[in-house]
Amino acid sequence: MRGWVIPTTIFILGLGLGLSSPMLASRYGDQYLPAFLKKPIHPLEGSVTHKQRQQDRLLITITTQDGTILATFQQQVPEIDLLIEERDLVTLDVRQYEPFVTDPPLLRVTKHTEVTPDSAAPTNPPIQSEPTPETSPTLDPQSSLP
To answer: What is the pTM of this model?
Structure first.
C-alpha cells in the first residue's frame, strides 16, 4: 500500500501545476512573451454619463460608440470614486462590447475640462513694443576729420 503514496502525490502536484500554470504564466510571464503571443488589448473609450456610489460598490454608466456600458466596480471602490467624475473620458480594457461588466481594467482616464470665455482669453496680453524711428545716426564727414 505504501507504493501508491509517491505516485499519487506526484500526480496531484502535477495536476495542480498544470491547472494553475495558465493563470501564473499570464500574471508573471506576460511581460516576457513576444507580442504575437500576448492577449490583444481591445480598448473601449467612452464618456461617463452617470456615477453612483453604493455601500460596497461603484456603478458607472459609460456611453461609447458601440453603446452604453454599466461598469460595476467592487474592488478599489474609494480610489476609483475619487479618480472618475461625470463627463470624463474613460478607456476600458474589455474583450468586446458588453452592456454589463464587472471590475474592468482601467487603461486611461482623461479629465473633462470646461472652456469658459474668460479662461479662453489669454491671462497676460502680449506686450507690444513701441515703434522706434527708422533713422540711423548720420555721420558728418567733416566732423570725423582731425
So the answer is: 0.54
